[in-house]
UniProtKB/TrEMBL annotation:
Active site: K77, H95
Domain annotation Alanine dehydrogenase/pyridine nucleotide transhydrogenase NAD(H)-binding: ranges: 175-312
InterPro entries: AASS (IPR051168), AlaDH/PNT_N (IPR007886), AlaDH/PNT_NAD(H)-bd (IPR007698), Lys1 (IPR027281), NAD(P)-bd_dom_sf (IPR036291)
Alphabetically ordered keywords of this record: Amino-acid biosynthesis, Disulfide bond, Lysine biosynthesis, NAD, Oxidoreductase
Organism: Tetrapyrgos nigripes
Keyword Acetylation assigned: no
Cysteine-cysteine disulfides: C197-C241
Biological processes, Gene Ontology terms: lysine biosynthetic process via aminoadipic acid
Quaternary organization: Monomer.
UniProt keyword Oxidoreductase, yes or no: yes
Identification of the protein by name: Saccharopine dehydrogenase [NAD(+), L-lysine-forming]
Superkingdom of origin: Eukaryota
Length: 368
């Protein structure tokens, strides 16, 4: 390559409209001497023309497998399930470093192809903080989905398909309308309230009209005693925003819910953290990820008890795809500018060390 190049692939996950590179960020990279190749994508929130006008080179949808192997491929969500070897360098969320379902088979594709994975979830600054994350918008959108599910529950209905919003104002207006004009009187509990994700959830609840005293904001101090927590059962909506790194006592259990009987206020659980297949999932009351087309899953409870729904969508920020993408891509930009020097730039050398460690674990697990 005569100049540093990044190839923005299309997203194959249904309803995923976000982009790792926005036209704004692409222009800044081009101005810094990069070539940016962008796959055409009708699903993406940004039109192809928005990239073309800032100087990106457009190529066919999903054509990255035939790209020269020395061009790094950047995307957001995991690749479709396959056994094909991966010879490229990939920058993406792979969801395979915490022994999620299928983790070793994902990494084995890199082993067989000789490629490299830089997982966006594990790009960290010198203080161990992620350089870019969708946390705030995940919490914001998760709280909105929870409020919409609660509004449906009050009518004895199931929440229908969720559609991405053009902007935050449209989302807030829609949620308030579903709640009859305001969220006043609704009670919510947010665990992980001091983090990016939790702050987003709290912000949404405030903006739809919940009273400040009706938004319980919990973090490490409040959960230090260990769950399960009765307080979760006393609110209408519970939003889990923690970053799970090790085993902790469950926040909420099926046994606890059944034991509470009809003395339960809780109607909706939103698991923004979405550690569905993680063996340490602190909300072991459901077992599948939900989707934009089927946003809730019912908890299995005796028929004489009120229903309880779980929202466990693993790409919630795509409810606000343009704003979420702009924020994330802007935060990622300084690290991308260092990528050509990735053999020396700490954020990238640390990420590669972690990849090699996880790859070795996968090779052993797969018996390769």
């Amino acid at each position: 390559m005569s100049k540093p190049t990044l190839w923005l692939r299309c997203e194959k996950k249904e309803f995923e409209k976000r982009a790792a590179l926005t036209p704004t960020t692409s222009k800044k990279l081009i101005d810094a001497g990069f070539e940016i190749i962008v796959e055409r994508d009708e699903q993406r929130i940004f039109d192809d023309a928005e990239y073309e006008v800032v100087g990106c080179k457009l190529v066919d949808n999903n054509s990255w497998p035939s790209a020269p192997t020395d061009i790094p491929i950047i995307g957001l969500k995991e690749l479709p399930v396959s056994t094909d070897p991966l010879p490229h360098t990939h920058i993406q969320f792979a969801h395979c470093y915490k022994k999620q379902a299928g983790w070793s088979s994902v990494l084995s594709r890199f082993h067989r192809g000789g490629g490299t994975l830089y997982d966006l979830e594990f790009l960290e600054d010198a203080n161990g903080r992620r350089v870019a994350a969708f946390g705030f918008h995940a919490g914001f959108a998760g709280a909105a989905a929870g409020a919409l599910a609660f509004a449906a529950h009050r009518k004895g209905e199931k929440l229908g398909m969720l559609e991405p919003y053009i902007n935050e104002e449209a989302m807030i207006a829609d949620v308030k309308k579903a709640l009859g004009g305001s969220g006043k009187g609704v009670k919510a509990l947010v665990i992980g309230a001091l983090g990016r994700c939790g702050r987003g959830a709290v912000d949404l609840f405030r903006k739809i009209g919940l009273e400040e005293n009706d938004i319980l904001k919990w973090d490490l101090d409040e959960t230090a005693k260990g769950g399960p927590f009765q307080e979760i059962l006393d609110v209408d909506i519970f939003v889990n925003c923690i970053y799970l790194s090790s085993q902790i006592p469950a926040f909420l259990t099926q046994e606890q819910i059944i034991k509470a009987g009809k003395n339960r206020g809780l109607s909706v659980v939103v698991d923004v953290s979405c550690d569905t297949t993680n063996p340490f999932n602190p909300i072991p009351i459901y077992s599948i990820n939900t989707t934009f087309s089927e946003p809730t899953v019912p908890v299995d409870l005796p028929s004489d008890l009120a229903s309880l729904s779980v929202v466990s969508i693993d790409h919630l920020p795509t409810l606000l795809p343009r704003e979420a993408s702009e924020q994330f891509s802007s935060d990622l930009l300084p690290s991308l500018l260092e990528f050509p020097n990735r053999q020396k730039a700490r954020v990238w050398t640390d990420a590669e060390k972690l990849y090699k460690k996880k790859l070795a674990e996968a090779v052993e697990a797969e018996g390769l």
